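Progress narrative, Year 2. Work on DUF2147 domain-containing protein from Chryseobacterium suipulveris advanced from sequence curation to structure prediction during this period.
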Amino acid sequence: MKKIAFAFVALFFATLSYAQIEGKWKTIDDETGQAKSIVEITKKSDGKYYGKVIQLLIKPADPNCTGCKDDRKGKPILGMEVVRGLKKDGAEFSGGTITDPKTGKTYKCNISRDGDKLNVRGYVGFSLIGRTQTWHKVN
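Result:
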C-alpha cells in the first residue's frame, strides 16, 4: 500500500512540474534554424510569468531594440524582458505578450510545454493568425 501511495504522490508532482515553464530555454531563429538566444522564464510575485534574454548566441545586427515602441525602446536586447504577463491556464500559459527584439513588434502569446520543448505562439487578434516557435530546455 505504501508503494502505491508513494507512486501516486511521485506521479502527481511529476505532472505538476511537467506543466511548468520556469527555467532556461534556447530560442531558434525561424529563418536559419540556428540557436539564437537563451531566455530565462520566471514567475514573479504577481503570479505571472516573464521571460528575459540572458544570453545571445548570435550577434544581432543591432544590439538594441530600436523598433520597440514601449519602455524597451533603444534598450539592449541582452537583459530585455521579451515575455510578459503570462498566466497559467490549465496546461497552457496565456494572457501575456511576447516581443520580437529584432523588429520591436509585440504580439499576444500562448505557451504550452511538450516535454523538454516549449511551443511559443505569437499572434495578432486570434490565435489562428500567428506563428509558433519551438524553444528547447537548457540544463
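The beta strands are 23-28, 35-43, 49-56, 81-89, 92-99, 106-114, 117-123, 130-138. The chain has a mean pLDDT of 87.
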